[in-house]
Every structure is written in C-alpha cells, then in structure tokens.
C-alpha cells in the first residue's frame, strides 16, 4: 500500500512545469522557462516549508514546549502553514490580524482549528487594542512562542535546505537563472545562496512590485499581495540578488490571468508578477548565445483560489482601471 502517515510528509518536492504560451514567442532552442509550482504543497503555498522548519527549530531549542501556543501576526499563507503543522503536532495557534483582512481568510485559519484575534485598524499603534500590542501581549504569555517570519533565520534556512536543492537536482544542475518575488526575502535568500554555492554563475533575480523598497521604491502602495515591502526585513540577504526586475500591478495581474487561461495554472498575483519578470528576462536572452542553454526557474508561491474576488474578478480589475481580456468597456480588444 502506498500512503503517508501525515500530510506533513508531503511538504516540498513540488514539480517543475514548463511554461509555454504565457511566455510569448521564444525560440525552440531556448531559453527554457520552468515554473516551480508551490501551490501543490499540502497547505497550498510555499509557506508550508518555513512553517515546518521554524517549528522544528523551536521544538529543538525548547522555545516551543509540548502543548504550547504559537502566536503570529499573519492572516495569509504563513498562518495556514503554521496552523497545519501545529494541529498535527498538538499545538494551539493564535493568529492576530487587522479587521481589514477578509472573513474568508480568517475562516480558513479557523477551519484548521486556529484561533483568530481581530484588531481594529482605526487605532494608533500605542493603543492597547492595536495589532502590535495584542500580538506582543499574547506572545508574552507562558507557553507562547512567536515564530516571526521576518526575523527567523529558519525561514531562509528552509529554502536553503529544501527548495534550493530540489531545483538544483530537478534541473540536473543546468539552471542558469532563478526568478522569485520577495516578501520576507526568505525564498530568494535561501534558494539564491544554495544555488550560487553550487554554481556561482547562476543569476538570482528578484521580481518586485513597483513602489516596494526592493526595487528602489519608497513603500508606495501596490495591489499585488504577499510581495514587496516598505522596510528591509532581517530575513533578506541584501547581497543575494544580482538584479531586481520591477513589475507593475497591471502586468502582474494580466500575467496571473494568462497563467490560468493558457497554462491552466490557477495561481495568485505574486506568481503572475514573478512569471512576468521571467518572461521579460527570457525575451532579453532569446536569440543571444547565452539564451540557447538558458534554463530559467521561476517560483510560483500560491494558488489563485484565495484571490477569486480580486484578480479573477473582472469588476474588481476594472475598478482599478486594469484591462480585462476580451473586450474592454470602450469596445477595444485588449489582452490575448
Ligand atoms: N507570494 C506570496 C503570496 C507570499 O505570501 C509570500 C510571502 N510573504 C511571497 C510571495 C514572498 O516570499 P518570501 O517571504 O519568501 O520572500
């Protein structure tokens, strides 16, 4: 019989899938663009990897004791990963999130058995009910432990130990370029360092929403979720990226929808952003001697299921003035 004893055994070892139509016309002999499909992790995102590694380390160091409580200010993929691992290992989870977080996102965490504490957005940070104060108070209770994905070295380490080696083995060492978005910077720092240790010629390329600090912005708002920052996280290795490609929200969303419609890959906006950067890079390399043997791996962090009312909703896109495939409101044909 073929089975595993726990869902946690299925974290990682995600496949590489070739991207074709979504990358536009590329020469037959390269570059080859391969997507590392992280939504196939059991919790639905790349964050399962860091959740497991951070919890393993906290167990080993004694910071997390049997029956303890994990407290993290998150409402997204990291929360799902932590909730999944915590549940299987008998820990309690409390996630603190601002009231602007959608009910759907909170309900996902509750479905795994986690507790969700919602804080008002409309109070100053020093207020006792603020997001920061509530999570600090909960994390200082006996038995509580806060992973803090923005400063925890086990975040990048999980990618150094799993994602990086998987990509190296799957491409048989032929990877020439690695492209990924950056939030905490854990993915690019861990994977980038591993790949460069195997072959210093591997180019590590960050994809970043216009406005984020990683591409020289000031923290101006953008709509793609999970990537870009308005500060420099400790988990980001500032020496790892050879280059950062800035991508607009419009291009990220257009590519996100194209991945669903042409590659049957229902992924989130940060995946579209990374794939768009990979496409720009592939077209720069196409036709050059370097392009022939180029193997570009682009990491797609999560599924599009969590964004059906946003990126995949025509009215939402139109509300922000982004083009929708087919016919636009003024009758022009847009997209593909
Ligand atoms: N995409 C999504 C949807 C995410 O949730 C995250 C993590 N914040 C990222 C990309 C970026 O990954 P990292 O934090 O490893 O830089």
Automatic annotation (TrEMBL):
<dbReference type="GO" id="GO:0019343">
    <property type="term" value="P:cysteine biosynthetic process via cystathionine"/>
</dbReference>
<keyword id="KW-0129">CBS domain</keyword>
<protein>
    <recommendedName>
        <fullName>Cystathionine beta-synthase</fullName>
        <ecNumber>4.2.1.22</ecNumber>
    </recommendedName>
</protein>
<dbReference type="GO" id="GO:0004122">
    <property type="term" value="F:cystathionine beta-synthase activity"/>
</dbReference>
<dbReference type="GO" id="GO:0005737">
    <property type="term" value="C:cytoplasm"/>
</dbReference>
<keyword id="KW-0456">Lyase</keyword>
<dbReference type="GO" id="GO:0006535">
    <property type="term" value="P:cysteine biosynthetic process from serine"/>
</dbReference>
<keyword id="KW-0663">Pyridoxal phosphate</keyword>
<comment type="pathway">
    <text>Amino-acid biosynthesis; L-cysteine biosynthesis; L-cysteine from L-homocysteine and L-serine: step 1/2.</text>
</comment>
<feature type="region of interest" description="Disordered">
    <location>
        <begin position="142"/>
        <end position="162"/>
    </location>
</feature>
<comment type="similarity">
    <text>Belongs to the cysteine synthase/cystathionine beta-synthase family.</text>
</comment>
<dbReference type="GO" id="GO:0016765">
    <property type="term" value="F:transferase activity, transferring alkyl or aryl (other than methyl) groups"/>
</dbReference>
């Amino acid at each position: 019989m073929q089975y595993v004893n726990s869902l946690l055994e299925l974290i990682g070892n995600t496949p590489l899938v070739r991207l074709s139509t979504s990358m536009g016309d590329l020469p037959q002999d390269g570059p080859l663009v391969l997507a590392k499909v992280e939504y196939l992790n059991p919790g639905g995102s790349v964050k399962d990897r860091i959740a497991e590694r951070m919890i393993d380390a906290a167990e080993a160091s004694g910071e997390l004791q049997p029956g303890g409580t994990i407290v993290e200010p998150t409402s997204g993929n990291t929360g799902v990963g932590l909730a999944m691992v915590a549940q299987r290992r008998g820990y309690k989870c409390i996630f603190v999130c601002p009231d602007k977080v959608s009910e759907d996102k909170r309900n996902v965490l509750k479905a795994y058995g986690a507790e969700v504490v919602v804080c008002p957005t409309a109070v100053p940070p020093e207020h006792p009910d603020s997001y920061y104060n509530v999570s600090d108070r909960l994390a200082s209770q006996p038995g509580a432990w806060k992973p803090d994905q923005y400063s925890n070295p086990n975040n990048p380490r999980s990618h150094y130990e799993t994602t990086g080696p998987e990509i190296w083995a799957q491409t048989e060492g032929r990877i020439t370029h690695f492209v990924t978005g950056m939030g905490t910077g854990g993915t690019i720092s861990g994977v980038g360092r591993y790949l460069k240790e195997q072959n210093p010629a591997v180019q590590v390329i960050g994809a970043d929403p216009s406005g984020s600090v990683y591409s020289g912005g000031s923290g101006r708002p953008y709509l793609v979720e999970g990537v870009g920052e308005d500060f420099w996280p400790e988990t980001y290795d500032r020496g790892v990226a050879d280059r950062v490609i800035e991508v607009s929200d419009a291009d990220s969303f257009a590519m996100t929808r194209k991945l669903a419609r042409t590659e049957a890959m229902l992924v989130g906006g940060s995946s579209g952003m990374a794939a768009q950067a990979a496409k720009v890079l592939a077209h720069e390399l196409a036709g050059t001697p370097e392009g022939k043997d180029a193997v570009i791996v682009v990491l797609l962090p999560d599924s599009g299921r969590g964004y059906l009312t946003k990126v995949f909703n025509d009215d939402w896109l139109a509300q922000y003035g982004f083009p929708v495939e087919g016919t636009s409101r003024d009758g022009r044909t847009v997209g593909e």
